[in-house]
Amino acid sequence: MTPPPRQSPPPGRAPLTFRQRIAIGFAAAVLLIGVTWLVSYYALRETAASGRAFAAQARDVIEFGRLRAAIEQKMVAARGFLITGDEKFLPEIGRWHRDLQGQIANLRLAGLTSREQELLGEIERAEETHQKATEAAIALKLEGQPAEVFAERMEPAREALERRLAAYLNHERQILEQTDSASSRENALASALILVSGLLSVGVTVVLAVLLTRRLGHLYETERLERRLAETARHRYRDLVEGIPGGIVWEADAGSLRMSFVSRRAQEMLGYPPDRSKAGPDFWTRLIHADDRERVMATAARALREGTEQQFEHRFLAADGRTVWFQTRIRLSREQGKPAVLRGLSVDITRLKEADEALRLRARQQAAVVRFGQDALVETDLSRLWEKACRVVADTLEAEFAAVFELLPGGREFLLKAGVGWTEGAVATATLPASTATQPGYTLLAGEPVLVPDLRREERFRTHRLFEDHAVVSGASVVVPGSPKPPGVLSVHTRGPRTFSGEDLFFLQSVANVLSAAAGRKQADKAVEESERRKTAVLQGALDAIITIDYEGRVLEFNPAAERLFGYSAAEAVGREMAELIIPERLREEHRKGMARYLVTKEERILNRRIEMPAQRSDGTELLVGLAISRISGEGPPVFTGFLRDITDRRRGEAERAELLVREQNARAAAEAAESRAAFLAEASAVLASSLDYRTTLASVVRLLVPRIADGSAVDMLDGEGRLRRLATSHSDPARVAASEEAADLYPPSLAAPHGAGRVVRTGEPEVLTEVTDEALRATARDEDHYRRLKSLRLISLMCVPLSARGETLGAITLASSESGRRFGEEDLAFAQDLAARASAAIENARLYRDARDAVRARDDFLSIASHELKTPLTTLQLQVQGLIRKVRGAREDLTLESIAPRLATAERQVERLTDLINNLLDISRITAGRLDLQLEPVDLSAVVGEAASRFREEFSRAGCRVEIQTNGPCVGQWNRLRLEQVVTNLLSNAVKYGAGHPIEVGVSGDEASARLTIRDHGIGIPPEHQARIFERFERAVSDRHYGGMGLGLWIVRQIVDALGGAIQVESESGKGSAFTVNLPRTPGKRRTAADAAEPSALRG
Amino acid sequence: MKTVPQNDTCKILIVEDDPDLREALGEILRDEGYCVNGASHGGEALALLRGESSRTTLILLDLTMPVMNGWQFRAEQRLDPELSTIPVVVLSAGDRLAEQLGPLGIRDYIGKPIQLPLLLQTIERYC
Hints:
heterodimer; A: five-stranded antiparallel β-sheet; 32 helices; 28 strands; 58% helix; disordered C terminus
């Protein structure tokens, strides 16, 4: 809590001091209290006065009340007498009368106001009147007058008295009330005054008290704060002082040198409790090390004298007996009014000092090691080196003894090889067991430095006579490193107890390491010698030529085998450039370049690898050598060693073997290829056999070929018109499939083409274009666009084989190679032909199968139609016969010869019909079987027509057909009579059958080259949709329901007409009849056999 | 001597394109005393049936005929309420007739070559 800030006072007026303010305050308070007191006093007095007045008044009232009571009593008594007539009341009346008179007199005396006096007088008078009345009444009574008489008399008096009494009473009451209210007023006023003043004074007092308290509080707070601050400062100071690490702050009186303050650190650092440390100056002085005392005292004295700050180092004795180094700084301090004080700070520098010492020690030790190391480099005699080592150790570590214990071969004993401090003769003779029971033995086994603070009390191992004899107490040992086994142990010993430090051990080990290095070097030298010896032996004895060269290519070593191989002696070879000696001249430059490159780039091209190269002998002959070169690594420029062997013979053998291998591989490859081809062919055959639809199977085979056999393949087939059409295309690149098919569509292979499917189909011979040249493309292309398209297929090699069946070429399979780059050759062609053969066989099979199936179907059709046709005349025949039989059996009256005859005629006719029909059918079968052989001869068509007409005469008449024949004389041609008759007969019979009841017109005409036969009927006619079909063999579905037998005849006619090289047409309309026209060439031009006639449909199908 | 039987009530229509057969059949049936008419194809038959004064009792129908064959005739006959009730017996040389007749709604058929006794028996059923 801080004191409120002081406001600066207005200028010109001295600030009121606190005291003044207090005084004023008190005065005010006192004043107020005084005032209050006075006011209270007066108020109270007034209150008391009014109280008294009230009381007096009240007394008056009471007095009056007594008066009134007396009057009342008197009246009562009077009345009593007047009513009762009892005389006892009379004295009472008198008494009361006297009483009240007396009271009145009293009242007067008491002091009344004029008004009161007045009123009282009235009362008196009234009373007198009443008395008199009463007396009169009494007299009357005594007279024995009735009551009413005196009552009458008395009443007004009584009333008047009553009135007067009441008036007085009222008056008194009024006065009382006035007094009362006056009194109250004064009371209130007084109370108020008291209250106000009381409050005021209390208030002021309180305010004052508060102010005072606060002020005092502030002061108190401030003081408390300051005290605390001081306290804190003191504490901090003390902490600071106490907290100085390693430092003791102290204060001593300058005169007496008595310590007035010693920081607590003293206890920590030195172990002396504070109370003791505050003891006299002697206490501290005595603690200073004797050697330093004088110096310290002198310095202190100077500080006191000169008043300067001084600094010095000295030793203190700590409570536990340690010696502690301190650096102390002292200063004299004089403060006003205070005695001079010597202040000081002492800092513990023991560690510094120790570190210093250690550093110095280490430096000395290191120097010793370095010196010893230098000696070791120079000293060749190892035993002298051991001795030197011992001396260095003993000197540097300031120990009595040093020793080198050499591990003897066998590893069981140590020999004291060298030493310092030992008795004469001990060195080089004394031995110790190398077991862990001894110090060296234990050290050797431990492999680590071993510290021995006290050999006598040592638990790890036992002491030894050697040590006991020399009274050794402490020591340390280290192993002298070496491989494979350490040569021994280096140790140091002392007579007195001593704990060697880590530094000491380090030093010891360093010395041991130097020894080890020296010993190692000796060993290494020996090893090198040994190695050299061995190497020479190897080189000498090797079978391979071993040549070592330096980085310039000059021979360093040339072993006997090299001498033998190349014909140079080692003496000749060493120092010469190897390239000159053994590398043929043409390769020398390359070799030199290679060497140079290696040296620069360090790229190892030929190192550590078996290479073969030509070499030459001293006599100039060449040979083939197998060579392996390795680099001998080491410092400085490289050295290379080469191992060479004559492999001329071996090489040859290898070459032969390689050739054999290649041949074998080729053979295997060929066999594999053949196998894969055979597998492919088998697969292709399976595909081809899978279905009769050879179009689909061929397409599958084409796809199968890609990409195993070729990059692309296609098959083209001849269509019915003898054009080559693309059946299927395949390529590993689908775009090229489309391109090829498009080209084939736009430019179907022409049979005249010089290359490709066209040529193959034309010639029936396969074609192989091992290289598809540009010329070949140009020759095949029909125009520029075609050429471009062909070129876009990027054909590299092409193979085309024909597909043929029954000696006829049906199409071609083409194989192409593009990306794979393979060239087709003889073997490929053989394969392709094999494939083509299989495909052709498949086609053949398909056709044969289909032909067979067709033939079977044809036969079935034929049989079916035949049976159908035969049934009709048979039925008629049978009916007739049966009818006749019935008639005959029945012996009916109508069985007359006339009736029988026509029946028999009909029967006969049926038999004819049957015969004809059977012949027709036989013909058909013959024609179908391809046996319609036509022998041609001159035949007169007109004559044939005439004969046929006459044969049909009867039939014509029966049918009601009038026949008209029109010929222009003979019409002769090279035809077959029988067959021509057949034609005419069939046509006529159809005309009769379907044109019954109508005329029939037959006409023969013609010109030089051809003849024409026309047969017209006017019968039912043939609707157009059937006209095309009637010449077909038998379209069962339609013709059989309408024209059961008609098809046969017409078909036969058609076959014959075709065979004769002619043509037949029909003109017809339903209901209007039909006209058949046959055109025949007089001499056969394109003579096609029935076989030919049969074929196209087979091809087409 | 037996008399020629007369069956005036039975009028048979033979629909057959082969004239010989038609004639032969007609003669035989006339011998048996039936009244016989003939038509060479379905169209003729229909015209005849529609135009006749006295009703035909039975139709003997061949199937394979030009212009209008048996099947077509039968279809027409069934459509015509006047004619549909006239019974039909099929005469045909074809095989598997039974299968074909189901759709035609015909029960009886005579295969060719015709066995006369069988034919007469069949006709008697209707006449």
